[in-house]
Amino acid sequence: MEEMAASAREDGARGQKQGRRGCKHYDRGCLLKAPCCDKLYTCRLCHDNNEDHQLDRFKVKEVQCINCEKIQHAQQTCEECSTLFGEYYCSICHLFDKDKKQYHCENCGICRIGPKEDFFHCLKCNLCLAMNLQGKHKCIENVSRQNCPICLEDIHTSRVVAHVLPCGHLLHRTCYEEMLKEGYRCPLCMHSALDMTRYWRQLDDEVAQTPMPSEYQNMTVDAYVFIDF
Predict the structure, then answer these.
(1) Could you give the residue range(s) of every CATH 3.30.40.10 domain in the chain?
(2) How far is CA 198 from CA 37, 189, 202, in A?
């Protein structure tokens, strides 16, 4: 455990030279004591990348200060040397980080990056969405509990922002941007991932402004539809 803690502190020292503390995931002044294996890691992601099991953030009880190395109950400030572990601290998720206007959403069950007033929780989608989508998105029940159809990784607890497609399905924002380089259809339902209304209106206007050749005016044809059972 001491070797792992030393490694985590070295990561923190490198981070301080770069103007931050902690690891590449979070800016914080403490290490989490994993309740599953009693090892010390800067964050749950660092733990999960190095172990064969996952750290349950909600069960974290103790942290170690990166300055005085005192192990203590999870809290925002070190009880020994007064080091601030995080500008933001959630006592439920045990999230320590610099202030990014985070807030804990009780319905999501985790912390989100705000500001809180810019988001609302859709009870059917079971996800926090931007206020400009309120009443303007297609709801799919518990949509965020599905994995991203591009990378097949979790969306609900991901640190990557989710992008809501017009069809209601979710992708990681980064996966969505990569997808647009190859196509513009939802990989789940094949509906357009873009709002094509303006484009179709433009085509309609171009057709309306294009005169029909005289030889085709007033011409009609019979159309037949064959259905194979």
Answers:
(1) 146-204
(2) 56, 21, 6
Residue for token digits 């989100």? 112
Query: Given this structure, which CATH class describes domain 146-204?
Result: alpha beta
What is the per-residue pLDDT across 124-146, written as a single tens digit (0 to 9) for each? 999 999 999 999 899 999 998 99
> 């990784």: which residue's tokens?
153
Per-residue CA distances from 110 to 74, 113, 156 (Å): 17, 10, 9
Residue 164 has phi, psi (to 5 degrees) of -95, 120
For the cut 60, the answer to whether the pLDDT of residue 81 exceeds it is yes
> If you write DSSP's letter for every residue of 42-92 in order, what string do you get?
SSHHHHHHHSSS---GGG--EEEETTT--EEES-SB-TTT--B--SEEETT
